[in-house]
UniProtKB/TrEMBL annotation, chain A:
Localization per Swiss-Prot or TrEMBL: Nucleus
Organism: Ziziphus jujuba
Biased composition (Basic and acidic residues): 338-350
Entry protein name: Uncharacterized protein LOC107418804
SMART domains, per database record: BTP (SM00576)
Protein encoded by which gene: LOC107418804
Higher taxonomy: Eukaryota, Viridiplantae, Streptophyta, Embryophyta, Tracheophyta
TrEMBL record, chain B:
Localization annotation: Nucleus
Single GO biological process annotation from the record: transcription initiation at RNA polymerase II promoter
Native source organism of the sequence: Ziziphus jujuba var. spinosa
Entry's family note: Belongs to the TAF10 family.
Protein name as it appears in the record: Transcription initiation factor TFIID subunit 10
Function: TAFs are components of the transcription factor IID (TFIID) complex that is essential for mediating regulation of RNA polymerase transcription.
């Protein structure tokens, strides 16, 4: 006999989770209460259980979520074996079968999600699952497998799906024996676990829910402060998704010289927009500006974007970095050269 | 025979049958709990808000496990039937219907899984020792 350890199905698995949830008592109190329920429910089973020597503690300890999931799967698999007709099992055989069941489950998921991704979707649907089942059953073969390449083949007529339908119809329903404690109740606990399967609660529609949570803004150091600074004046793009504002931009006044219209990037542009006009002192200056690529060279930029000495207009570099869009700049040159030689720049707002 | 008849029947009107089946999954509770399936699905990047599809995956897995276990049970019964009767009577009490690696690996081979297991596998340091010397 390759393995001398023989277990009663189902019962032992309960016992293991019991010991394991006792260990987790300090972490989550909900599991303890559900353990009590099962104890009363399966008292008859426990009487049989007393004959069996306890397992070594190393095999029953589960410290991380994947081992916990494995323990749950083992209970489910042992219940299935029990429903098939087995009464006892070797531990190694049960664990092998549990492992295979997990791999099968993950195989379906990986295959379905990759076929969803290959058709430019993030969410999988029934067709992806049927395709994944075909992939996994192709080793053994299934009726109708030779027709898969035909163009008029309908995935919904798949014999694999039909077999599952018959299985559901003909099999006695054996639900899982106990409620599974969710560990999301404790918020501190949830932050600690970054397993990839906990939902994020940002609420933004474009963030997939399986992604881990965003880090706290306050803990981001320098980047956080930049973000905070920016948010005084603007809104993040994802925040403006919910309500569609069609109000104009904010006018940033700086002294009495410049009023630059800064349009927020919106989803739809306003129907009618005014012309932004610059009048700059000399026509030579404008020509030089057009040739030289706009921003003056070697000139001391003032914060308002206007350099009095050079009579040049530049974009405010800080505002550009913030990602907002300067709506329209049309630099108009007037014919009369001799007015406004003191460098006044007139910027019309919309 | 019965199975074939059913499948041809369903083939004629597959659409209502399929939607009916999916609707019945709302009430059906698979042995593999939803939370567990969701956990593994999320780990593999599968994203789907529909409970019925999650249950479909659960049912598919349950069917697979049940098939493997059923095959192993047949192996087990066939092996025991071949044993001579007087020996069988002696072994009947403790050895009937135990899921062993031997049967399981045969059953899994039919499903395309090759299981190689060690000839002797010690679960604990005390395995194989004299039963009297064990502390239990």
């Amino acid at each position: 006999m390759p393995c001398s350890k023989t277990l009663y199905l189902g019962v032992r698995a309960f016992d293991e989770v019991k010991t394991e949830s006792k260990k987790k008592k300090s972490q989550s109190k909900t599991s303890k209460s559900s353990t009590m329920k099962i104890k009363s429910k399966s008292s008859k089973l426990e009487q049989r259980n007393k004959k069996i020597p306890p397992l070594p503690s190393s095999s029953s300890s589960s410290s991380n979520p994947s081992e916990f999931a494995f323990a749950i799967t083992r209970i489910a698999v042992s219940q299935i074996c029990q429903s098939v007709g087995y009464r006892k099992t070797h531990l190694s055989a049960l664990e092998t079968l549990t492992d295979i069941a997990t791999k099968y489950l993950r195989g379906i998921a990986a295959s379905a999600s990759s076929s969803a991704a290959s058709s430019n979707r993030t969410q999988s649907n029934l067709f992806d699952i049927v395709q994944a089942l075909h992939d996994l059953h192709s080793v053994q073969g299934f009726p109708g497998a030779s027709d898969l390449h035909r163009t008029d083949y309908c995935l919904l007529r798949s014999s694999v799906l039909l077999e599952i339908t018959n299985f559901v119809r003909n099999t006695v329903e054996t639900p899982f024996d106990r409620p599974i404690p969710r560990r999301e109740e404790d918020p501190t606990e949830q932050k600690r676990i970054c397993d990839g399967c906990w939902r994020n609660h940002t609420g933004a529609p474009h963030v997939p829910r399986w992604l881990p949570e965003f880090p706290d803004r306050s803990k981001c150091g320098v980047v956080g402060s930049v973000v905070e600074k920016r948010r005084k004046e603007e809104e993040l793009w994802e925040n403006s998704l919910g309500e569609s504002k069609n109000g104009g931009g904010s006018v940033i006044e700086n002294g009495d010289v410049v009023g630059v219209v800064v349009m927020k990037k919106k989803r739809e542009l306003g129907a009618k927009r005014g012309k932004v006009r610059f009048r700059i002192g000399g026509i030579e200056e404008v020509k030089e500006r057009e040739a030289g690529g706009g921003v003056g060279l070697g000139v001391n930029f003032s914060r308002s974007g206007v350099c009095r000495g050079g009579k040049r207009v530049c974009l405010d570099s800080e505002k550009r970095r913030n990602g907002c869009e300067i709506e329209k700049f049309s630099v108009g040159t007037e014919n009369d050269d001799h007015d406004d030689h003191d460098g006044n720049v007139v910027v019309g707002e919309r | 025979m019965n199975h074939n008849q059913q499948s041809t029947e369903a083939r004629h009107d597959d659409d209502p049958a399929l939607s009916e089946f999916l609707a019945s999954l709302m009430d059906y509770t698979p042995t593999i709990p939803d939370e567990l399936v969701e956990h593994y699905l999320a780990k593999s990047g599968f994203q789907c808000p529909d409970v019925r599809l999650i249950r479909l995956v659960a049912v598919a897995t349950q069917k697979f496990v049940a098939e493997v276990a059923g095959d192993a049970l047949q192996q087990c019964k066939a092996r025991q039937a071949s044993i001579v009767k007087d020996k069988r009577d002696k072994q009947q009490k403790d050895k009937r219907l135990i899921l062993t690696m031997e049967d399981l690996s045969k059953a899994l081979r039919e499903h395309g899984v090759n299981v190689k297991h060690q000839e002797y596998f010690a679960d604990s340091p005390s395995t194989g020792m004299d039963p009297a010397s064990r502390e239990e």
